[in-house]
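Appendix B, record 7
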Amino acid sequence: MNEWGTPGLPLADLPASKFWPRVTDNLKLEDSDLWQEELGLHPKSPLWDGVTKMMIRNVPARCSQTEIEQLLSYVTTDFRLQMPRSSERKCKGYAFIEGDADVMRRLAHFLWQRQVPTRHSLRPLKIHPARGFEQQ
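Structure tokens (predicted):
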């Protein structure tokens, strides 16, 4: 039994060949069994291993950077937050968090299925590793 409770080798342990390329070389977030279109990548996914930059989507337009920082501070203060704004100073609906891999893993568990509590939106935040993320 592998780590998912199914017989056989975990995908990452299968030998590479021209018919079966290395999993980590071709794996897209959307191809993961732990990807959900509404919520993003589940925190238990091995694709979070070594991630140092996370993208958060579905951030309410009038949400301030301070509100997101306060939310994240329940877990850690060891992060860097970037929150792009429109010309009207409204949030563009997404943000980036940078930190070490352990911090990203803890934040992924914390943010999974969570809304911004200071806003009345019932839409959960969508989280996933940022494109071009670096693995340690």
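Remarks on this record: Residues 18-27 have pLDDT under 50 and may be disordered. Strands lie at 35-36, 40-41, 53-57, 80-82, 94-98, 126-129.
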